[in-house]
């Protein structure tokens, strides 16, 4: 068993806007690229040119929602480690390889101590950890811990790769422990939500819900339709002449 | 256990060096930072300074590293040694390869240049490849626009001097209502996502019109799940509503469009439907100040949208009258079109009301002075913040040209084109038809063609026809069958060449075009054509040369393979002469340069074309003393001049007093300057020139200074396209250029100078009771326009492509998870896996395009899901429509432009037992490169 810190100085995490995510998978691949080349073992791919299965720290799922009335909707749902405050993946770890950082709350795996037992993946209710088949160690989102403080990167690039690359601007990074931070403000404004709060994990990452859709199908709440100026050409031309006179 | 945190290095070295170049994972052409370690590519990210992507990058772009290390990469030139289609090749030297190619090409050029058909697919160097073809002398050149989106491009140019995507973009910073039609998840990639993000951050509204609610349509606030092929009808119903309510911008229409231009309305006149013009040929309007006839561009004129004019006993009415009487007709009323479009009439009315509200009640005014082409000064720029974007979904139908026209007309009636908050052109657009060439096709052995192949016809006199009326081009572009085929018709080349109709060719030369697989209709038929032999046992298409970087399905069907490099190993230019990467506020161009050297015996295709040109001493490539002008493509990029002072790249040219931009002499260090600037050049448009560009003299003068035009080219938008009326008049029997009789009725009915809607032509050739279902494809965002799905990372996202069925069909046929279906069209059948999708038009099925791969191609293993469960809808689509008893075979394309009508497809569906693999199951081809490794643990900096 591994202990969680009683308190972290910051709660760094992601805010993901489900109203804006178009499901393009840009975050998935930039994550794969950065984390293959950087922190720990590369994210390997088995049978990459046959029936492939590889390690990803971030995946985008798509879910359909069928309201009782009206058209079905499709929600793109990016999912990676939520860096929970009460992270069951940490407390279950038999070697101390999984830990939550005191200074920023990032949940990391120390690969040299990881025995690949898989208990943490089993304990995570979100399915956010993947055991790398080539290296035999557990891989998970590091919140790009090797980018966000990296003095070899220009300051503007010190953010997770997935945030830097997101074309629609649907991913935001910051300190969710600071109520005045941009991300906390965004969460407050848009009603940001925890994923599966009933699990009691207190995830740091937040999701901004999609705005209400298909309002135009609810015709009665709309402004009135356009008032005709004419129904036929002759009447229209009369209106035209009068209106031109006023221009 | 106590808290013991490991110490980790949070500032590791990221790379040795960053090399900035241009992505080629799709057609978007974003700027990329290539991080190098030990001379190898370690990581790719977006370039924050780049005008296209401003730092972001899509999944394809980040996966570029897997494209460079792909096992499917060709290694050396290949000569076919087995029968065509077997995949049996031997590697040969470049000397032998070039010798073989010129051995076929030289005699053709000396005797009959048209016997070379040179078609380039996903080509981003068309101003160069067309220059090569022109100097070779063949009339048979085009790229892939004819089977992609020519309807959108041509309709835009003919209507308003530009279309969407590369031509222009919504005013993302000001628009308040954005409406997107028929855009799958692509065209273009990052800028649309960035734009939607901006709009959403402001709380502005997005309406998506698409039978499929995925991608951009999934995030749209309102979704219109329209019936495929009825977009034109829906748009004209919006026009009907807006006209009826007087919600159109009369001032804009009078000043900046041909709405006030007078049209001959005497049906007996040979000029019926043509404009009344003055002695200089200028269209005439009535001046509302004086009541007199006046040229439309006269300073001080106030063009009248209302007054008619009687001249020589003939009544002339302004276009505005014709437009009103056409679209006020009840046949365009929401209640009339609703069922056909699959949209409730209330919803059509609500959308029209919302468009009108935003356009006319949320007007934007920018305090910027400007002067129009009539010399009038304006103190502000007034905007109607409704914008549109549209692409292949409405384009790839046989009614696509008129539908695209309708959309452009809708924007213009609102006064939302080139105004704040509306749609904005990107240089070198706006560019009217009059500033484009006409098609050229005069062939002389041993001589260049008489001008550029592709262009915009002004009337029947510009068609590419021989004196006997037969087509000059192998693809039959610019003929009476499809007069305005401005991008050529690549999809007809192989079937026409195989049939020897209009003539036989000797050599088919293609680049990056997977014609024996996903880029052709009727895939199995095309494979037969490529391998078919005549009585002498010779192939009907005698020689096929193909260039590709990868072991695609097409490789097996060529006789000679010229292996290309990847985009990180080559020079390229993304030129203002070609398909630009400009922004609405700036002109921009870019280069690629070899950030790594190839590790194998491959050469950039454009350099190979230079080498072939040099061997044949093609005129534009040869100095007067017989020496070669260019050593390779980089040399051409630097030193070629299209006209004095104008070359492929606009940045860092040599002026009289040092470096300059736009016009200037070639600069030997130009490419170095581009590299130093991050791989691109950008020149911002002055604020006072940034909107109202077609009429804004500050913009026009800036464009001349930049070398975009030689003189100012102001113009008005063509709501009414007189060129189309010229073709109708010919079909009615007027003029010396006459269509064949069997085409007269079709030309009369389809080439209407004001937008019309007619049902997709396949609907009139098949039994809709038997084939009631629409079938579509989309490219996924993570693969749009990327060359192959063999990319190890991307194929883990989209390695399967079930056919998605809407709830109604899913339940009607009692499908369950894991089931398979036989899907048949009048042309063929496939048996494939199905899946349920609720957010879908109830009569439409769809799948991801080009996921299915042939066994043996792309270095994939034979059990790859793309090869066992993947499939193509192409097997169901024929390049010709089924016979309908008139003795003719009509082409499955738009009758105006020849655009391939992919999305007209009608099918029926039956539940069947699951076969072992998707059907038809094509036999494997032998891979010239073997298959990929069993595991990837890619890390450059270990």
Account of the protein in words:
The complex is a heterodimer of chains A (247) and B (942). By secondary structure, chain A is of the alpha+beta class. Chain A has helices at residues 26-37, 88-91, 119-123, 145-148, 161-165, 182-190, 233-246, and strands at residues 12-17, 45-46, 53-54, 58-65, 73-80, 98-100, 107-109, 130-131, 138-139, 171-175, 206-208. In chain A, strands 10-1-11 form a 3-stranded mixed sheet. A two-stranded antiparallel ribbon of chain A has the order 2-3. In chain A, a hairpin with a 6-residue loop joins strand 8 (130-131) and strand 9 (138-139). The longest helix of chain A is centred in the last third of the chain and has 14 residues, at 233-246. The relative contact order of chain A is 0.21. In chain B, strand 1 (17-22) and strand 2 form a beta hairpin. Chain B starts with 16 loop residues before the first strand and ends in a 6-residue tail after the last strand. Chain B contains 24 helices and 37 strands. The longest helix of chain B is centred in the first third of the chain and has 18 residues, at 94-111. Helix content of chain B is 23%, strand content 17%. By secondary structure, chain B is of the alpha/beta class. Strand 2 (45-46) of chain A pairs antiparallel with strand 37 (935-936) of chain B.
